Amino acid sequence: MILSINIFLPINNDLLTLDTNLKKMVGAKHPILYAAAEHLFTAGGKRIRPALVLLVAKITVNNKNLLPEHRRLAEITEIIHTASLVHDDVVDECQTRRGIETVHSIFSTKVAVLAGDFLFAQSSWYLANLNNLEVVKTISKVITDFAEGEVRQGLTNFDTTISIDDYIEKSFYKTASLIAASCKGSAMLSQCNIIDQNDFYIYGKHLGLAFQIIDDILDITGSIKSLGKPAGLDIKNGNLTAPLIFALEESPDLYNLIKRECQNKNDIYKAIQIIKTTKGIQKAQDLAQEHIQASLQIINNKYNCQLGTTLQLISHYVISRLN
Q1: Is 153 part of a structural domain of the chain?
Q2: Residues 180, 183, 188, 191, CA torsion sign
């Protein structure tokens, strides 16, 4: 299943406007910063996060008419996400992203860090200008969650004692927090009651966790062409993900590779092959499916409409990325 233009049909024009506005919003005075930021947005991406903001907005406002604040929140969400990718690539020493060179590969690590900081600063400025303190509080928490997730990941490199619960908590900070908070923020801008706000938060949380788990499976099963970056990067960096954690329960050989931090030439390849012979990938996929079902339950119970169906399609798309 491909995330085609048909899935986003109800908001297709809104997403086209978003792409145009993103480049205007990051107009830095310094040409290098501007070039770095523009490079990121030109690289594209699935735009799932802003799409969710727009869809939740249309479900929760009268006559499906988006407020300017909804559009701005969608843009802020994508800027925050993009800023986090720049810093992730520096930390992970990743040379490609979405099939093109990363910012620090083209410019330098210093420029990449500054570009990420610049984008976070821009997002904070536009967020403050929404003039909605509760939304500001909700979205601002995401930026601290990113830092928390990175620190936790850095402190547990090659740590074979990490549990699935630890992994899920870290995945919430790194991925699900933004999706959950932006869905809730959109409902807040629509002046929904607290129950509906929390519904969309829970939907986004479970969708985000499933998205991260599937990403981590693809890091093992995917190719450079399909991923847009090298496979096995998590293993190389000592980032123990769901399929690896599950596989460790079955394989002493894998445990030994991780304990010696995959230092030998073919260790990463060996680790991937071992994981594929265990039930690690299937167990991780089952875990992702549980979170997808939890996200769907929210929508199925209360938001049975065309736009709700679009949210369901996005949930199904997340799992289908393995096909």
Answers
A1: yes
A2: negative
